[in-house]
Amino acid sequence: MSTIVPVRGSVEELSDRELEVFRLLGQGLDTRSVATTLHISIKTVQAYCARIKDKLNLANATELFA
Hints:
By secondary structure, this protein is mainly alpha-helical. It is built from three helices and no strands. Helix 1 (16-26) crosses helix 3 (42-55) and helix 2 packs across helix 3.
């Protein structure tokens, strides 16, 4: 019997802006702080987070920081 291991995406699949958002979130900034730092709206940051989760095959936002 074999075990199915989920395949995760690679950060290499992220755009430069997605990688920048990912890096800032990884440094502990919240969505509002990322938006302020990058001079973009909170909704835009949330959209980037959704794309990052999709590209990295993550089930939820918590897995972004695991």
